[in-house]
Structure formats: C-alpha cells, structure tokens
Amino acid sequence: MIGAQQVIDVALAEARRRGRADETIVVVTDRVDASLRWANNTMTTNGESTGRTTTVISVVRDGDEATVGSVSSSAVDPAGIGDLVAASQKAAATAPPARDNAPALPGGDAPADWHDPIPRTGAEVFGGVAASLARGFHGADTLFGFARHVLETTFVATSSGLRRRFTQPTGSVEINAKRDGASAWSGVSTADFADVPTDAMLEDLGTRLSWAQRRVDLPAGRYETIMPPSTVADMMIYLSWTMGGRSAQEGRSALSAPGGGTRVGEKLTSLPLTMYSDPAAPGLECSPFVAATRSSERASVFDNGMAIERVDWIRDGVINALAYPRAAAAEFGAPVAVGADNLLMTGGTASLQDMIAGTERGLLLSTLWYIREVDPSVLLLTGLTRDGVYLIEDGRVSAAVNNFRFNESPLDLLRRATEAGVSEVTLPREWGDWATRAEMPSLRIPDFAMSSVSQAQ
C-alpha cells in the first residue's frame, strides 16, 4: 500500500500520458477506524481497520461545455491506478454536458504537511471510557452500546497544481441502559476521547430510568414539548440537507417561495436564532475545503479544493442563505455558499433543567428515531420516539409515557418555538452515523404533534 501522495502522483502522470482529459482531479481518503462494543454488562468486541478510497475525476472541455467522469475504487494495489484513470476518462468521453460546469481553480503551493505520515488511532483511545464502563457494569442497570473513533485524511490534487490536505477526527460514544423493561439512551460526540463524560452519562441514564419506575399512558395529540439538543439536531440537520439553492429556485423544495424565487429574507421565528456551519467552529472543526467525489445540488466536483467559509443559513430568525456551488451561484445570481461538515445554532441562557422547571405540564422528548420525509414541499417529517418520553408535571419529571409517531416540519418547529435554551455540543440519535459535529439549543414547542401512539418498546 503506497502512500496517498504517491497514488496522486501516479494518477496525474497516467492522466497526462493518456491525454484524453483536459483536467484531472484526484481525491484520496485514507481511513483508520477503531471500535469498541459492549452488551449485557460485558465487553464484546473491539477492532481496528484501515482503508482507502481513490477517486479520479476527468474533465473534458468543448468550448463552453464540459463533461465529467468520476470513478472511485477501494483497491490499494498500485497496478490498478492506470485502469482507474482509463475508466474515468472513458466515462468523461461519453457523459452528457455537466450542468455544474465551472472554470478550473488555480493551483498553488502544497500545504506544509502534504508529505507527513497518515495519523493513526487504535483501541487504546477508549481506555477512559472502558474504565468507567467497567465500574458501571457492576451497577443496577444493564448496559449496551459502542464507541468508535475514525481518522480520515483526505488529499485533493488537480492537474492545475492545486493541493489540499486535511485530517478529520470523528468519534462518538452511545450507551443504552435498561432496567425493569425501561430503556434510556445517551450519546456524545468527541474528536479525541479526552473529553468523554462517561460517568456523567451513566448517572444521567440512571436518573432517567428512575423516572420510568412510574408509567403513564397518553393518547395521540399535541403536547407542550421540550426538545433537548440531540432531538433538535436531528431535525435541523435534515433541514440543512434540503437547503439547496437550485431546488429552491426551481420550485422543488420547502425553501421555494410561492410564485417563484426562494424564501431567503423571510422571517422564520421571533427567537433570535442563528443556524450556521463553520469549518473553524471551536471543538467542531472540519475540512476547510471542498472534497467532492460526485456533484450534488449542494456541492460540485468542479469546486474541489475551494475554500469553505462560515455560512449563516438562518440569521437572527431570518432565512439568510442557501447552498450554491460556483456554477449555480453564477446561474442564479446568488453568493457562492458551500456548507461545512458541521451545524450549529445559537440559543438562549436557560438550562434544560430550567426549562423543565418552568413547565406546568408537558413532555420531555429525549430521542428521535427512524425519521423519514413525508412531504418535501413543506418539509414534513415523520418518525418515532424511542428510549424515553417523559411527563413533566409542576416543573418536575414525574413519569415515563408511551412512545409516539410524530409528524413535524423543522421549519414549523422553528416558527412555533417559544423558548430556546443554552446551546450545547450534542450527538443526534438518528443521524449520528453521518453527522457528529453539532451544537444545538433545547427548544420549547407549545404544540408538538404526536400523531399516533407507537407500540414500540
């Protein structure tokens, strides 16, 4: 397995030799993955793996038009690089004109760490978590869960001389605790496992299981509901995925304005909330450049290596920006905006405990599950509650209640929210496999729609 830098050099040289593309972009990602699992108060498995994905993107230009061929491979044998380049150039030669065609970005000096070794991780990173779990295994609750730590080092290189490199650490810990037929979930994201509050997570799970010693069955309906940061993240991340400028301009999304255009500039909520992505957000840092192996409405292969800046998608309660790669921005006369791989939202000053204390009667909605889109025109989502919906009475949690199916739109949740708590780094339950870098406030929703009772336990 030769170094990623050598793969790039060989691929670019092979592309020049074959000469069937005007431009070549190579994206190589080396991944090192460590994991730890436990069940029934026993460590079960741990493991480490390494892998590589190489993508060769060929661009063939003909006047104002361009065609693209993008081919990826997980093979590590250097002998296969030539075949990968040939397949990419062949795909470009037969592809239709690319709608996201944009000029090649200029080259520049390689970053200082371009030739540095790939950083690694291993099972030893879980030492602190494992020690806390070992103590927890002797407690009253039965614990299940897993931890993972991934380091992905991505290289982007182009035939014009552009060079980019970034290592993305991604880590998470998820714990399920069970007692007397009740269950509760807790999860955190982490970059390096130096800050995982495992003991506090176990204490919180024990508290929630004690709430479940009393159970109250409630019917479907609309309830005043407090959404902690994890559930808010699940809904707002889905919103961010739909904020493509092209789909809004063409009337295909909930961000399309009646009669044409987009809803940018519309006041969404009276709360002074700002939802943004920022590659330099402290503690949630992520890649500061585009590394796209295929084009979508929110990113373009032609923009590979382009710098990513902070974007305020919602600013002070007003829809402020939509995602536009360079070509779409030029087509619609909008600012270029590409989202970073994180999502943050400002909040208020109240803690979750303060918000519970200020509730006469309502629900505490701890986690969401199996979220799916029902109506894209209004961004109506449906899903299930899981591992803990709790009844709040007179400012305190008094019981666990049955699970529900819900029907809500994140846009409507923001419109109807009456209070935002302090913003905290959180792990979304539903999207935690793909989106671990989030910071969200708790939200108070006066009439959250629990559409039916769920039999899920």
From TrEMBL:
Residues 221-451 form the Metalloprotease TldD/E C-terminal domain. One of its GO terms (molecular function) is metallopeptidase activity. Residues 91-113 are annotated as: Disordered. GO terms for biological process: proteolysis. Residues 91-111 have a biased composition (Low complexity). It comes from the Bacteria. Gene3D superfamilies: PmbA/TldD superfamily. This is Metalloprotease TldD/E C-terminal domain-containing protein.
